[in-house]
Design goal:
The chain has 555 residues and is of the alpha+beta class. It folds into 2 domains: 33-419, no CATH class; 429-553. Helix content is 59%, strand content 7%. It contains 22 helices and 11 strands. It has a 7-stranded mixed β-sheet, with helices on one face. A two-stranded antiparallel ribbon has the order 1-4. It has a two-stranded antiparallel sheet with strand order 2-3. Strand 2 and strand 3 (284-285) form a beta hairpin. The longest helix is centred in the N-terminal third of the chain and has 26 residues, at 131-156. The mean pLDDT is 88.
């Protein structure tokens, strides 16, 4: 709380000083040294450009590569689902439901975009099926996003702004955490900036075809892109037509590959809306989903849930608190630039980013933003807006520059220390785990483990996926042996497969008959179920503590 207050005070004081200084300059009360100081800062950056880049590379190496695959020390349920599907596709050519090379994953019934699973396959082939392989694609995409943003801003603006923008991206909590996970939807953010880079640099006809290909691929990163990308394209094309910087021929060349890539997704929508029948396209499958989530998109969400969504978008898990007022300053400046350039019919990159961000955040909030990954397309444009806020306060001032950069650096170091000292799973504990994989590995090393009945008892969502990921079970073997809860079929709740049984709660006593002494049993129980553990103690089971779980055996 104290850090937040200090951050607010720092920015307010700097803003007041900036306004006072600007007023004094306008009244000729104090000399105007802004241009001189800015030139000195530019000269310093040009002189030490390579050294600055080396520092940025060191920051990237530490924050992204240090203990990669270890932190975050949990695996999200969707991350585990995508990883297991990628493993199945890499080794068997089908997903875990035996769909041949699907163009959309079923996951746990609600669906999951396919791009992440497919780009993971080469890493599984080369490095094996492990956490490094599952998470490496995300890391590479996010490293690409830093380079894309740097070169985009360097080309359109200058080195100073590009370096500052890159620094803010590298130190951003959201970017750090997203780059170290294997979450499919997070690919939207880097792919969107790549789309923007290629599109803004398009000159020849084939450039627009290439742009269309990249944008078409982006549609396979996250289902919300089906809403966000068309909104972006409409506003971008209208803006460029107004400025006479794009022709109808170029729009058609851009649109053809996008349309081709979108055809399977159109069919997916028709199929899951009841207007088409399931069919295979050669080796590719378009699946029928048990739960189709188009109902989550509502205009009323924008009206009723805007406060909740905004609190998620601007949460401390995304930006440092000092960056929120800097965003507000940058946004106001950007609006002014956009209005000015729009009237003059001149292209302005800052104005374009403001326009894109404004449209995207409104469209994005048609769904309830329950977690920041749902709004990941917004964050790189937002960081550029924050960059402009920093530039405004630092213009013509060594002191302001030093204070802001030092404040963000300190917050970054504090974040890194906190991040790498985390001892347990994330806040959304019901959707994340890692210990079950380690426990599964331990259980499978026991003599005759295949014959021992194992009961996993916990409130964890889809606990079976962690054992599948660790056991690397064939999807054909899974399909042959699994039993599914009929009441929860739309969530694909698996009750058991092989010798593994999953009980979501304490309802397990009936599973244990009076013959338990003549048969080996293993129970893995979440420690919140004290009564269950006590019950097994009374039956003379051996109890071993595994952090938040107890492993209980009768042999």
């Amino acid at each position: 709380m104290y850090i937040k207050i200090i951050c607010i005070i720092v920015v307010i004081v700097l803003a007041i000083i900036k306004l006072i200084k600007q007023y004094l300059i306008e009244q000729n009360i104090c000399p105007n040294k802004i241009e001189k100081i800015d030139k000195q800062i530019d000269d310093f950056i040009n002189k030490h450009y390579k050294k600055i880049l080396i520092i940025l590379i060191i920051l990237v190496a530490f924050s992204r590569f240090y203990k990669f695959g270890v932190y975050p020390n949990f695996i999200g349920v969707d991350e585990a689902g995508a990883a297991y599907d990628a493993y199945c596709l890499a080794n068997y050519g089908v997903d875990r439901y035996l769909n041949s090379y699907p163009l959309y994953l079923i996951n746990f019934g609600g669906g999951q975009s396919i791009l992440y699973a497919y780009v993971t396959i080469p890493f599984i082939k080369i490095l094996g099926a492990n956490i490094i392989s599952y998470r490496l694609p995300e890391l590479l995409f996010y490293l690409m996003s830093i380079l894309v943003c740097f070169f985009l801003v360097k080309k359109i603006k200058n080195k100073k702004i590009a370096v500052l923008y890159s620094f803010l991206i590298i130190t951003c909590p959201w970017h750090i955490e997203a780059s170290r996970k294997g979450l499919d939807c997070n690919l939207l953010a880097p792919m969107f900036m790549l789309d923007l880079y290629v599109l803004l640099n398009a000159k020849k006809n084939w450039h627009y075809i290439l742009s269309g290909i990249f944008i078409g691929i982006t549609l396979y990163t996250y289902c919300l892109s089906w809403l966000l990308i068309p909104a972006f394209l409409i506003i971008y094309i209208c803006y460029m037509l107004y400025l006479k910087k794009i022709t109808f021929k170029q729009i058609i060349l851009l649109g053809i590959p996008i349309f081709i890539f979108a055809i399977p997704l159109f069919y997916l929508l028709l199929l899951n809306s009841g207007y088409a029948t399931q069919t295979d396209f050669g080796i590719f499958t378009i699946p029928k989903l048990p739960t189709f989530r188009t109902g989550e998109i509502r205009l009323t969400n924008l009206i009723k849930w805007y406060k909740f969504s905004l609190s998620t978008i601007f949460s401390e898990d995304v930006f440092y608190f000092i960056e929120i007022p800097l965003f507000i300053i940058g946004y106001i400046i950007g609006i002014k630039k956009f209005i000015r350039s729009f009237k003059k019919k001149e292209f302005d990159f800052d104005g374009l980013i403001i326009l894109i961000f404004t449209v995207l955040i409104l469209v994005n909030m048609l769904v309830i933003i329950e977690a920041n990954n749902r709004a990941n397309i917004l964050y790189l444009p937002m960081l550029y807006i924050i960059t402009n806020g920093v530039l405004y306060l630092c213009k013509g001032s060594y002191v302001n520059t030093l204070i802001i950069l030092l404040s963000i650096t300190i917050l970054f170091i504090n974040y890194e220390i906190t991040y790498f000292s985390q001892k347990e799973e994330s806040k959304m504990i019901i959707y994340n785990d890692s210990k079950i994989m380690g426990i599964t590995r331990e259980l499978e090393s026991l003599p005759n483990s295949l014959e021992i009945e194992k009961y996993i008892i916990m409130p964890k969502v889809q606990a079976h996926i962690y054992t599948l990921l660790e056991n690397k079970l064939s999807p054909y073997e899974l399909e042959k042996n699994k039993k599914t809860d009929g009441k929860l079929i739309e969530l694909h709740i698996i009750e058991s497969y092989g010798t593994y049984h999953f009980v979501y709660g304490e309802n397990f006593k009936e599973k244990l008959d009076n013959t338990y002494k003549n048969k080996k049993y293993i129970f893995v129980i979440d420690n919140i179920y004290v009564e269950s553990i006590d019950y097994l103690k009374q039956l003379d089971f051996y109890i071993e503590n595994r952090g938040s779980y107890s492993v209980i055996k009768n042999f």
